[in-house]
Amino acid sequence: MIDYAPFEAWFVTGSQHLYGPEALERVRANSEAVVAGLNGSGVLPVRVVFKAVVTTPEEISAALREADAAPNCLGVIAWMHTFSPGKMWIGGLSRLRRPLCHLHTQTGKGIPWSTIDMDFMNLNQSAHGGREFGYICTRLGIERKVVVGHWKEPTVQERVATWLRAAAAWHDSRGMRIARIGDNMRQVAVTEGDKVEAELRFGVAVNGYGLGDVVAHVEAVRKAAVDALCEEYAASYTMMESLLPGGARHASLRDAARIELGLRYFLEEGGFHAFTDTFENLHGLRQLPGIAAQRLMADGYGFGAEGDWKTAALVRSMKVMAHGLPGGTSFMEDYTYHLDSGGQAVLGAHMLEICPTIAADTPSCEVHPLGIGGREDPVRLVFDAAAGPAVKATLVDLGDRFRMVVNEVDVVEPLAALPRLPVARALWKPLPDLETAAAAWIHAGGSHHTGFSLALTAEHFEDFAAMAGVECLFIDGDTELRRFRRELRWGDGRRD
Ligand code: MN
After folding, report:
1. How far is the CA of 391 from the centre of ligand 1 (A)?
2. What is the pTM of this model?
3. d(CA 261, CA 222)
4. In the chain, what is the straight-line distance between the N-terminal and C-terminal CA atoms, in Å?
5. What span, in angstroms and rounded, lies between the C-alpha atoms of 384 and 143?
6. 73-87 b/e (C-beta count within 10 Å ≥ 16 → b)
7. pLDDT at position 496, please?
8. Residues 347, 447, 425, CA angle at the centre, nearest 5°?
9. How many angstroms does the Cα of residue 305 sit away from the middle of ligand 1?
10. pLDDT in tens, 147-187
11. What b/e string do you get for 25-44 counting C-beta neighbours within 10 Å, with b at 16 or more?
12. Is 201 helix (H, G, I), strand (E, B) or coil?
């Protein structure tokens, strides 16, 4: 349900007529070579299309207006090959709605010491033209990514690729539909928020549906479809013996399969990209959707438990950004701590709903009591998350604005087996350390629910938040608590 193939980004080169037609021909040829090089690198997930060398205010406005109107254009990559006077850009840039990436590069890597003359200097003056372009973008208050370096460098290509992934998620967000099945978990604060503001800011449409709408789809599921899905479970996971055909709990597996299929039909029929549910409202469902939510997430749906539509939206955007990258992405919750001074860590999990894309090994399909919700025992996939660097992010509503907080973490293997813990889980060490990371997160008002990814980096969120115009705070190896708290005060417009 996530596909980058239709998308493209437009490449626009700024110049002017001062240097004569011959120079402009060189600018065009060099631009085409840069675009071909970027596309040929294999690093970019989306095709870049060279559009034009723009030399007048009219050409600039026309190119950017066209980019805004093209439904599959994710954004504009601008390069100032020569000097391109900034006032020419005011009309076009002030109306541009698509994300902007300023590629601050130069055709050749090195200075040709023995042959360089003033013609070369005039043709290759990004150092000069890029600053003029930067000034006018800053003056206009335009959020953009600035990527500096030679276009053949993998690090430069990676930074453009990250921006393209964020732009794909931003495009997806502008049309995102979230089904909120039931309301919020009662009395919980952090999962609440302003749905009107969310649609204004992110383009995310969040609407509520009664359980009956889902139950009708669950009841309509045919026996043959349940049979087939139970077989798929058995082929995909290590099955608890009692869940297999003839086993004492096989009926629970069939109920779970029926819920997955019904929920899937409901989401497909409504054209939804993400959903929430809550254990306090399960009327007509035999179990809280466990394996259903887990497998729908694996297919690219965003999910938030207990009515948490903000995290559902975030998980969906993260799924889009991570599309095709190694490592999975899941809904997550900070659950319990290991506060041993030898190696403090967080054990993250949820009642059921952790995405199997983050699993280290084949998940185990099990059924256990839930303890809350008052329904029958739900079927779920149990596993440990793969080890490695990861990020977790939260989106909170501060009343006057949304805030994103991102923490870099290292997922580690569990220090010992967890034979009695019947849920999927991840053990991680937050950067810079647990004390600083948790205190910073708490000061920032970050939620216990997060989007969690072994595929993404903090830079994906930096780019996405810039596109959305949302505050984004980072907790990483360089975070120092006093400085972080100062950042919070500055963000709030309070004096230090
Ligand atoms: Mn929760």
Report:
1. 18
2. 0.97
3. 9
4. 47
5. 39
6. bbbbbbbbbbbbebe
7. 56
8. 20
9. 6
10. 999 999 999 999 999 999 999 999 999 999 999 999 999 99
11. ebbbebbeebbeebbebebb
12. helix
Cα 353 to ligand 1 centroid, rounded to whole Å: 9
Q: Looking at residue 386, what is its pLDDT?
A: 98
Q: At how many degrees (to 10) do helices 309-321 and 154-173 cross?
A: 140
* ∠ Cα 88 94 95 (to 5°): 115
* Sequence-separated (6 or more) residues with CB below 8 Å from residue 116: none
Quick one: which of 158, 174, 472 has its CA closest to 316?
174
Tokens of 352: 């059921």
Contact 430, 472 (CB under 8 A): no
Q: Decide if 371 contacts 383 (C-beta within 8 A).
A: no
Ligand 1 centroid to Cα of residue 464, in Å, is: 25
Q: Is 442 exposed, middle or buried (0-12, 13-18, 19+ CB in 10 A)?
A: exposed
Ligand 1 geometric centre to CA of 306 (Å): 6
- DSSP result, 261-279: HHHHHHHHHHT-SEEE--T
Q: Are 291 and 256 in contact (CB under 8 A)?
A: yes
Mean pLDDT computed over 202-212: 96
Mean pLDDT of 4-29: 95
Q: How far apart are CA 179 and CA 309, in angstroms?
A: 8
Say if CB 432 and CB 476 are below 8 A apart.
yes
Please give the Cα distance from 131 to 298 (Å, whole number): 44
> For residue 376, how far is its CA from the centre of ligand 1 (angstroms)?
19
| Helix intervals (H) in 206-324 | 211-219, 223-236, 250-270, 291-298, 309-321
Whole-number average pLDDT of the chain:
96
Q: Which of 318, 360, 352, 356 is CA-nearest to residue 335?
A: 352
Q: Which of 45, 134, 82 is CA-nearest to residue 324?
A: 45
At 492 the pLDDT is 87
The answer to whether residues 201 and 468 touch, using CB atoms and an 8 Å cutoff, is yes
**CA 241 – CA 114 distance, rounded (Å):** 77
Q: How far is the CA of 331 from the centre of ligand 1 (A)?
A: 9
Report whether pLDDT(264) > 90.
yes
Question: What values do phi and psi take at 382, rounded to 5?
Answer: -115, 130
